[in-house]
Design brief:
The structure is a single chain. Helix content is 33%, strand content 17%. It is built from 8 helices and 10 strands. Helix 7 links the parallel strand 9 and strand 10. The protein is globular and about 45 Å long. By secondary structure, it is α/β, with parallel strands linked by helices. The structure holds 2-amino-2-deoxy-6-O-phosphono-alpha-D-glucopyranose.
Length: 247
């Protein structure tokens, strides 16, 4: 595991965007796994900026998003379809047919999940998976104590995640209770993983994830077992790890 310390959020975003940009320049047909949440927004902004300057071309890239809420239509402002369109897809040249996001409105969730996994396999797997870190240690929407052995599947969100994400919805009761997410097994099959983490609020969970025991209680701890993980985190997020002399 490689840990890159950035001075602040902007620099974290730029460093992470550089890794994605290098991936796409070296292999224009890259299959990217993408994430939502507030942390990767700066990464997307930086990539959009370089795209506008003509430094990067996404026309042959394919993307698979990690997760989506159940029950929100793609035009709901808090759906991850909407987020991705607003923050990235609507501003770069990834062809619509190359974009894949789990369908949270399906009436047949089992078939949707199996089809999603199959599409990833047909594309040759994910070359680079971008991840954020949830306050509970979740990656995608794989909550604590979820089995490490799952591919794409439906999940019930933990109260803590509903509370954390209610800042986007206004009221906790408006946050969907269920979501569909790539599983830990799907994430671990990505060839490379890029984890972005920012802010003091994530310092404790980041230390547990990177240096604690590998346990389903801390889903992100499984990343310690992946052969090619880069963590790009700002100083605040790495503060406890540094304080304890672990880097
Ligand atoms: C959501 C997403 C995760 C994301 C997490 C952290 O729950 N499903 O993929 O990593 O939020 O979000 P933030 O970056 O806003 O802290």
């Amino acid at each position: 595991m490689k840990i890159m310390e950035a001075a602040d959020y902007k620099s974290m975003s730029r460093q992470a965007a550089n890794i994605i940009s290098a991936q796409v320049i070296l292999n224009p047909k890259s299959v990217l796994g993408l994430a939502t949440g507030s942390t990767p927004i700066g990464v997307y902004q930086q990539l959009i900026d370089w795209y506008r300057k003509g430094d990067i071309d996404f026309s042959s890239v394919h993307t698979f998003n990690l997760d989506e809420y159940c029950g929100l239509s793609p035009d709901h402002p808090q759906s991850y379809h909407y987020y991705m369109h607003e923050n990235f897809f609507g501003q770069v040249n990834i062809p619509q047919q190359n974009i894949h996001i789990p369908d949270g409105l399906t009436s047949d969730i089992t078939s949707e999940c199996a089809a999603y996994d199959k599409r990833i396999v047909l594309m040759g797997g994910i070359d680079l998976q971008l991840l954020g870190l949830g306050n509970t240690g979740h990656i995608g929407f794989n909550e604590p104590n979820e089995s490490f052995d799952k591919m794409t599947h439906p999940v019930a969100l933990k109260d803590e995640t509903i509370a954390a994400n209610s800042r986007f919805f206004g009221r906790p009761e408006d946050v969907p209770r269920y979501a569909v997410t790539m599983g830990i097994k799907s994430i671990m099959q990505a060839k490379k993983i890029l984890l972005v983490v920012s802010g003091e609020g994530k310092a404790e969970i980041l230390e547990k994830a990177l240096f604690g025991p590998v346990l389903p209680l801390v889903p992100a701890s499984i990343l310690q077992m992946h052969p090619d993980v880069t963590v790009v985190a700002d100083r605040e997020a790495l503060s406890l790890i540094r304080l304890h002399g672990l880097i």
